[in-house]
Every structure is written in structure tokens, then in C-alpha cells.
Write a structure and sequence with these properties.
mainly beta, four-stranded antiparallel β-sheet, 3 helices, globular
């Protein structure tokens, strides 16, 4: 007995050490990164980080069920303001057991107009998961500073997977917004009015990328025309037009010179898991992944590398596995990775009890050159 008791204590201590080491890998990694993380001001699933010029000022907008915005020139934590007036806020009526309001799940912009698309939510009592209902398209009215439902009203469509997306170019005049509905892609009009449709009547047919249709999720602007893709995409546009287009083909980054058909594109680096977002700097191409966090490859005059080097910042520890990176944005692609202002959103698969992710990290992140590290926004 005297011998057994100390052995049990030692065994228990070792077991606890192994258990806590396994569960706290993400936390310890952040400690090792020696960066004190801010309390998040933008939490929840962020699918879009969109530029839009309202009046004479350039803004950034994000959605997480609601809409938030801030001046694009801002380089400090906590500058985001709620810009959701006119959007019915999603809430749950416990008495009647139903959801009220709209969940905003995507944004897009033209040169002068910001669009948002939202869905009603229905409680599914049979399998315990909520389901999306009717979809509604809104635009931000700069005069009243409120959102207005477009004259198109219900845009659910026959396929039920309606979404919006845009070119998100640095050049304001080249911003194009689109809606995918009824297995087609249509342009969204610039400067809409309340009593007119916002959706073009003719479907897009560009053949530079993937054929625009029921799977299209992104658009990239070049002087040669618009590329549509069934995956995330980006260009190396700076103050001069883009010379290369980049897109995801599953886990592989592909690229082509501007004007070259995507079918002739070249394969670059492979991330082992699907690429979910792309942002370009002068010396690196950032790649968001589905479960392996933020990665990067080199950028040599527009040509991406074939390997995934480590970051010199804390990105590997702050935004590594198991995080999904739904959205990325580089404010100025003429600057280097460590010299540019960068934004990324993070999420993780909550159904996995051993995922290692933390809810505190779900939301928007930023890298500011003056701060020198990635942190919660």
C-alpha cells in the first residue's frame, strides 16, 4: 500500500499533464508567440471583408449576422461601428419558438453602393439544426444612412443558394457586384433607387474563368475582363491594373496572367486542405485554409511559390490549425506582407469536441505594421 499510493499519484500527474497538454496546444502556442491578445470587438462568422466608397470616404465593411464598418484608413483596434439601421435584427421568440429578423451572411459593393444579403431562419425541431428560409437583398442608402430592401424583394430563387459577391478592387471605378440566383449570375446595379430593380436582366457569360452559374462564388477584375470562379479568387492589382489572377482549385493555388483563360492556368503550391481565401502582397500570397489556418507562399513579381514557409510574425501561432479562414483582405498589395495592413476572419468546426479551437478566436483579426503582429480586431 505504501508503495502503490505514490505510484498512483505519479501516474495521475502524468495523465493530467498529457491531458492538459493535448487540450491546451492552441493556448500554449499563443503564449509562445509572446503576443497578448486583445478582447475581440468583432466576433462570429465573418464571410466578407468588403471595400466601399460612401461619399468621399473609403470604408471597410464586414458582416457577422449584422453589418459593421470603419474608415479604411483606420489602423487601430476597436474602430468598428454598427451600421445595421434598417436591417431587422435576428432574435428568438422563446414563447412562440421561432426566429424573427434577418441574418446577414454576405456583402458586395459597386463604385457607390454597398449591398447585403440576408436570410430568415427557421427552427428545425426534428434534427436540432436551424435552416435558412427566404433570402432578401438590401442596399445602403447614403442619404438616410439606413439599409433599404431592394425592389426585387424575395431573392430566394429556385435553387435556394442565392448569394452575392464582388470584385472588391482597390480601384473604386472597377468595383463590380453580382448576385447568384436561379443557377445564373447577374450584375447588381450601381446607385439603385427604391422603386427599381437592382438586378440586371441579362445573365453574365464571361468565359475567362469558370462559366458563371449555380456554383459561382467570386469575381476578379482585370483590364481584359471579369473572371468568375467557383472558388475564392484574388488579383495582384495595386495602383496599376492586375497582371495576374489567382484562384483556388481545391487545395491547390492556381494562377494565370491577366487575359489568359483560367483553363490554361498554372498550379503553384498545395495546402493539403481546401483554400478558402486569398490575399496578395508584394512579396507573399496569403492563403486561408479549411482547418489549417493561415498559410503563405512567396510572390516573385506575380509568380507564386511552390512551398509554404513559416511566417516571421505570430500568424502561425495565432491563426494556425484548427482554424478556417473564410475571408482575407490586403489594403494595399504594393506593400510587403509585414508592411501592409491585413485582415482575416477565423472560425472552426464546432462539432468536433477535440478541435482545439477557442470561441474567443472566432471573428475578425488584423495585422497592422505599427503593431507588428496579428491580433483580434
Amino acid at each position: 500500500m505504501k508503495r502503490t499510493f505514490p505510484i498512483l499519484i505519479i501516474f495521475s500527474a502524468l495523465a493530467c499533464a498529457v491531458f492538459f497538454t493535448g487540450c491546451q496546444d492552441v493556448i500554449f502556442a499563443k503564449i509562445m508567440g509572446e503576443v497578448e491578445l486583445e478582447d475581440a470587438t468583432i466576433t462570429g462568422r465573418v464571410n466578407a471583408i468588403v471595400r466601399c466608397k460612401l461619399g468621399s470616404d473609403e470604408y471597410l465593411f464586414i458582416q457577422n449576422g449584422r453589418v459593421y464598418g470603419k474608415p479604411a484608413s483606420s489602423v487601430s483596434h476597436g474602430d468598428w461601428n454598427t451600421m445595421s439601421d434598417g436591417l431587422p435584427k435576428l432574435s428568438y421568440d422563446y414563447y412562440n419558438k421561432k426566429f424573427n429578423g434577418i441574418y446577414i451572411y454576405q456583402l458586395a459593393s459597386t463604385p457607390t453602393t454597398l449591398y447585403a444579403i440576408g436570410t430568415s431562419i427557421y427552427e428545425n425541431t426534428e434534427d436540432g439544426e436551424n435552416t435558412a428560409g427566404s433570402r432578401y437583398l438590401y442596399y445602403f442608402d447614403t442619404g438616410s444612412k439606413t439599409w433599404r430592401k431592394t425592389h426585387d424583394n424575395d431573392v430566394t430563387g429556385t435553387s435556394g443558394n442565392t448569394t452575392i459577391f464582388c470584385t472588391n478592387t482597390r480601384d473604386t471605378t472597377k468595383r463590380k457586384a453580382y448576385i447568384r440566383m436561379n443557377k445564373n449570375v447577374y450584375a447588381l446595379n450601381d446607385s439603385p433607387v427604391s422603386d427599381a430593380t437592382c438586378i440586371a436582366t441579362t445573365a453574365e457569360t464571361s468565359a475567362l474563368g469558370d462559366a458563371p452559374g449555380e456554383s459561382t462564388v467570386s469575381a476578379a477584375y482585370t483590364a481584359s475582363g471579369i473572371y468568375f470562379f467557383n472558388s475564392c479568387a484574388a488579383t495582384n492589382e495595386t495602383s496599376v491594373p492586375a497582371t495576374y489572377v489567382y484562384w483556388a482549385s481545391g487545395s491547390t493555388l492556381k494562377y494565370a496572367a491577366s487575359g489568359t483563360n483560367a483553363s490554361s492556368g498554372t498550379s503553384a503550391v498545395n495546402c493539403s486542405v481546401n483554400i478558402t481565401s486569398i490575399a496578395v502582397t508584394s512579396d507573399a500570397i496569403l492563403l486561408g485554409t479549411n482547418g489549417r489556418g493561415l498559410k503563405k507562399t512567396t510572390n516573385a513579381s506575380g509568380i507564386p511559390g511552390t512551398s509554404l514557409p513559416n511566417f516571421s510574425t505570430n500568424a502561425d501561432s495565432a491563426l494556425g490549425s484548427p482554424y478556417i479562414i473564410p475571408a482575407l483582405l490586403c489594403i494595399d498589395s504594393s506593400l510587403s506582407e509585414t508592411g501592409a495592413t491585413l485582415y482575416a476572419s477565423a472560425d472552426f468546426k464546432r462539432k468536433s469536441s477535440s478541435s482545439g479551437g477557442t470561441y474567443k478566436d472566432v471573428g475578425l483579426w488584423s495585422y497592422y505594421p505599427s503593431r507588428g503582429n496579428w491580433n483580434r480586431e
